[in-house]
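Posting this for the archive.
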Amino acid sequence: MTQILFPKSANAQGYAFEDLIHRILPDYGYHILLPSGWYHYQGWYQLDGVIESNQERWLLEIKFTQTPLTPKTVNLKRRIEAMQASDCTGILYVSLVSVSKDLENEHKNLQVPFHNIVWEELQPLIPRSQTNLITSILDEIEYNFNENSFEGAGYKLITPQLQLQNHPLLQEFYVVPDHIEIWIKRIPLLSQYEQSIAPSIYKITESGIEPYYNQYLSIDEAWKIQDALSGYSSRVLTAIEHTLIALAKIRQGTVKEIQVALPDGVTTGVSGVRSSLSNLVLWALTTRHLVNKNTIYEITPLGYAVIARGSLDYSLFGKILEEWTPYKYLLKFLNLKYYSLNPVEIIDFFRGQYKPFLPYAKSLFNPNKVDGLIHIYRKLSGNNRG
């Protein structure tokens, strides 16, 4: 049996299952019209995709769950709104098991057409791999147990101390940590950009991925592969500023220690501090390393310089952000669109940047993430136009 490499967390498994289904459905007779993502139809909708069958459009709803789908778990009212807004005939559910009777009855009552495809029907379409291991986008890959490394055409990815594990309920899935799975899935495309030495060899580290043997790695291309460097998420610049002030005060510490050191009156929670620290690492204002299995963050000399006066130096911070790819691409969009801050147009622009890299990378920019970029831009530029 061909094993499918899958991430560990439930959220990442949902995305990986979407990737897998999008790759298989064309062999089942469906044409993918829209990939998964955020779309604006007189309001924002997050779609798992839109397919075409017999000249009819169907809204995709993909769920990686072994519990029968119910009107509540699929948020049926919202799905029907999205179906109508995207001009679809009905809803196509793809899941591990059949939909519940409650969902069937609700569709009949509302006279909304639906189809249901279960995983068992799609399994025979999984291509047989010579190495018996494929990714969720159907690339063959080989795992070397002796070296703890994954190998494919022209590349090797070293993964120290990794142990492959079967999914507890679905034996056809091999489970690995999310940060490793995302690189295993996307490294083939990244290796195509490395023309200097073959094979390209990379190593997973706590902070991400690095070239092995000092090979060159283009950060712009890596961004496209890793969805904006692990995903930009902090919306509020003040949370980032307060986190950096706290870290400057204690120099280094865990997320909880930094949260305790926040300025008086600041109520940012642990998750907000962790999110801010992730971005500060991307901007080289802090570093991250493991000490006795604890993740320790430490402020860098550049971080001290940005916060030297006790608050964020917007001029210096702005120059740093100009080299950060999501912000750099936002500025590129604004130059093209005469500084329009329309989130719909910005998300469409980011989606277009990713299009050549599907299915290895897809845009995860949603209204909240774009709102965060706009917030930072307005703060740094003083531009408050809509």
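The longest strand covers residues 56-63. The first helix runs from residue 10 to 24.
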